[in-house]
Amino acid sequence: MDLGDPEAALEDPASFVLPERGDRVYAALSAVAAAVAANPTPERWVAGWKVLARAGETTADVTAMAARVLARCRPDGSEAAGMLRDRGCRVVPFSPPDVPEALAIFYGFFGADAGAEWRKQLDGGAADPPRDTSARGFRPSAESA
Question: Which residue has better confidence, 16 or 112?
Fold first, then answer.
């Protein structure tokens, strides 16, 4: 299986050819991210992001894994947004929501009541109340015997 040389992709990100199968995309992007992590110079780091940008146009879900690796190995003293912008990447401004707003969004994903039932269960009490774990009254069924 030929996934291409990650070093060649870092030398010339525009030459990176995205494999057709998702498992091979994962392997190729993992190899690029690992190559950058092994030697994280500013130039290689930016080149890695350029490869990921090309892949992310069609396989954002797979690309996210490699992006986490690159985000963790940013070269010391480098300002990521400026470096990427200087090298032709598009940088989108992002301001994370404050904690109460983030929690409201989180709770909204997990119930029509925006998490009210969860908070009611957890407020002022143990998250996992003690349970009777004795075997009183337990009768195995004929199938389990």
Answer: 16
